């Protein structure tokens, strides 16, 4: 299980590294790229032995999802790993990883083409808005994503990721801390932006206001800071991918 988890962390890091690189291209004028998991899978598939690499990522993510499930059921190997809060956090991570794994495997088998996260977000928002009290539900979910984003950024600033790391060589400790903080801040910001658009969709009762990862990143380029903000966040997401590689190497599990 530990081997599967480490493999899965590497696979997860590859996804974030590619999303960061794709977002960086968009910041410098590439209008065709798609900076989300679907775009990352397509980019990976274009490399030598690409289909094999996509399979490896899908299987790795499945292993990581199972490991997070075991944490949810049995508790994590951390001082507070058996608390209800940590078990719930592991269960949420398991659900996200399971969806990513299923998408990668579907892409590898040819039954999916790595569709845009933006279109998927809008379709899902449209279906939920049609439910009784759907507007409130979309707003609540969007607000929850904003809170998760802010919470993730605060956790990164407080170096809480250290609780999951084993002994890191002294010469690399500062570098790993930098990757964890910079990557966590970028990831938290993107989550908060995506959640904000979901809240806006609920307020306006307009599913087209909802945005996936790709459009949330592009929205950063429309701020007064312009493409430079998107470039900074893109670098941060790539650094989060590198941090995940460090987690795979030195995780306590």
UniProtKB/TrEMBL annotation:
TM ranges: 7-28, 48-69, 90-113, 133-157, 178-205, 225-248
Sorted UniProt keywords: Membrane, Transmembrane, Transmembrane helix
Domain DUF1206: 8-73, 91-158, 182-250
Protein name: DUF1206 domain-containing protein
Source organism: Streptomyces radiopugnans
